[in-house]
Structure formats: structure tokens, C-alpha cells
Amino acid sequence: MLPSYVGSRPISARSAYLWWEGSWSLLQTIAFTLTLLYQAQTAHLNPAQLLLVGAVLEATCFIFEIPTSIVADLHSRRLSALIGAVVVGVGILVQGLFPAFWPILLAQVVWGIGFTFISGSVDAWITDEVGAEHVQTLFTRYQQQHLALTFVGILIAGVLGQFGLRTPMLVAGGGYLVLAVVMAPLMPETRFKPTPAEEQRHWDQLRATFLTAVRAARRRGVVRSFTAIAVLAGVSSEVFDRLWTAHVIDTFRLPAVGGLSGATTWFTIYALIGALLSLAVSLVANRIAGDRINATHPTKLLASLVLVQVTGIICFAGFGALWPALAAMWIRDAARNLSYPVQSAWLNRNIGSEARATTISVTSQADALGQVVGGPTLGVLASRTSIPIAMTVSALLYAPAAALYARIRPAGQGDADLPPV
């Protein structure tokens, strides 16, 4: 999804953000809709290897998250995003070109480094450009666009997958490279002020930016709570996200309805239904509960959405019939998708501009840490007991996040007011 008015002059920040994120959503969906199926059926990865692939990806994100985000805060958030698109594209191409365990493992390192250039930088860039007070509605609009383009991307992935499970990744990997080239002249960066070259004592500046972000994460309030919640989310999510496909294949018999058959077709259909449900939930929720979604402190909403996700995981793991299990998964995914723009806007409102990308990356790093710790640990549990038991435990580990959301209270002075380090 690229602008029809490609040229050499920047466009408005809002338009650039929606074009960028829309293109990213489309390419990401094309690349990853059938990735787990590709890894299991084409590359023949076993469950232990699937979890190791995920652990390597998250460990890479954990290691590189802060250094790359500090670069974004010191030099250019726009440039960081463009670099990330190129590196992500290369990583996806490596995975699609070489369907074997070690190349796929290497691809996770490349892809993970690229993602850390993106993580935090895009949100920080657009928050500076439009202002923290206006970013909530833009994030919500992006999320709805994301869900709609996810539907389109799933259809494209399903069609491309008929030519081979690697084909969607090859198309999407090349698409990321094109995205970087096309968007480079279009993305404005007018309100971010990089540190002048003559004032950049790199190690001192890196240290100061990092400490500002760490102090925000440690300070009582929204950012510290979000950091703790990110750890719980990471611990919980890795087993479900990596093994739900294997659970469906191993536990249920795929339907044969009319001419519809084969794992590629059915997993495309499952993804389409999930995307449609998430989009419908987002649109309805914004219509009937817009005041809660756009609230300055949406504590009750996010706490409730955590409980919905926990219930969805437990039901998916426990149901013995295919369609009820899938319905539970789709409800869980819809709740997670609905919560994303709300918590992103809430977090951005409570971070000072001087270290915004780095602070966001601290929370992303907390999520990666949770996945590095939780993935292998719950993977061992899954191999010694069963995937449903490991999923149930992961859901229970995430449940305390609801209490953390519920207990956040507006502070008299927000994290955005942190004094300089």
C-alpha cells in the first residue's frame, strides 16, 4: 500500500504515518500469516525448535532494543524507521529463501535487529509531529486501518501461499525494501531536534538518554506499571503465539467443506475470520464506548481486556472442539488488538520527548525479556506435559496485569515532567 503521489517532497505527518503504518501492516500480514505453517511443514521445525526460534528473536530484540532506540532519540527517528524497514526486509527474505533451521534462526537475528530500529521510533516520531494531545485519535484510526489491511494481507498471503509457503515471505521481504525507498522522501521530521554533531559525546549522550528512560520506567506511575505489565505479557504470549498452530494441527481434524481443503487454505480462512472479528469489535467499541477508549486514564477498560484475553487463552486450551477453540482465540486476539492503541496513547502521554523512543523501547525490552524467560520455560512444560497445560499456565501468569492496570492512578505530576539526568 504505497501513495499514488510519490514525489520528492514530504507530505503531512498524519498522511505519512498512515501510509507508513498501512503499508507495514499489509506487508507484515503477507509475511507472517503462514509463517508458522511454513516453519512446521516446509522447514520441518519441531516444537522445541519453534520455541528456540522465538527465543532467539526475542533475545535479539532485548539486546538491541535500547542501543537502536537511543540512536533514534539522538539522530533521527525517521531515519531509524527507514533503516528498520530495510533490515526487516532482508531478514524475511533470508527466512523465505532458506527453509532450514539454522538459516531461519539467523533470519530471526536480522529481523529482530530491524524491528528494534522501528520499535519506539515511529510512535515517538508521530507523537512529536502531531502533539501528544492529538495522538490518541490517530492511533485508533491506525488500528482500524491496520485491521482492515490485515484482512487484505491475509487474502494476498493465502493466494500467494498456493504457489508455495515461502512465496508470501519473498514478496513481503522485497516489499519492505520498496517501502523504505518510497517513503524516504515523503516522511517529514520537523519537530524533532537531534543533538548537534559538535555536542555529541556519544557515550555520555547514550548514557544520559538511557538513564532518563530508566528513571521513567522506575518512577511510580504509568510508565513503571506498563513496564511490569509488558514483562507479564511477554511471559504469557510466547507459548500461545508460537504453538497455537501446532496445537490445532495436532489436536483437531481440519474440515473438508466443499472444495476447501488443505492447511494453507484453512489457516488463511482462520486468519480472515479473526481479522474481521477484530475490525468489527474495534469499530463497534469506538462507536458505543468512545469516551472510555479515549479516556485520559483508561484503567478499567484495559484491566477488563486483560481478563478477556486470559479467558480466551484458557478456553482455547481447554475446548475439545475446533470451532469453539478458534472462537476463543479470535476473541482473545480482538481484545488484544482493541487494547493496543489505547495503551500506546496512554504511554506516550506520560513520556517526555527527549527520551520518548528510548522509554517506549524500555517497555518493549521488558516484553522481550518476558518472552525470553517465559518461552523456553513454558516450552519445557509443554514438552513434558502438553501444549494446553502450558497455555493455561501462561494465561494465569498474565492475569495479574489486570490488577496492575486497575491500580494505576493519575499522578499529580506525570512522567513527562522528569527532570534532566
From TrEMBL:
GO molecular function annotation: transmembrane transporter activity
Spans through the membrane: 18-38, 50-72, 79-98, 104-126, 147-163, 169-187, 265-289, 301-331, 387-406
Record keywords: Membrane, Transmembrane, Transmembrane helix
SUPFAM superfamilies linked to this entry: MFS general substrate transporter
Pfam families, per database record: MFS_1 (PF07690)
Superkingdom in the source lineage: Bacteria
PANTHER family: PERMEASE, MAJOR FACILITATOR SUPERFAMILY-RELATED, TRANSPORT PROTEIN-RELATED
Entry protein name: MFS transporter
Organism of origin: Flexivirga caeni
Lineage: Bacteria, Bacillati, Actinomycetota, Actinomycetes, Micrococcales
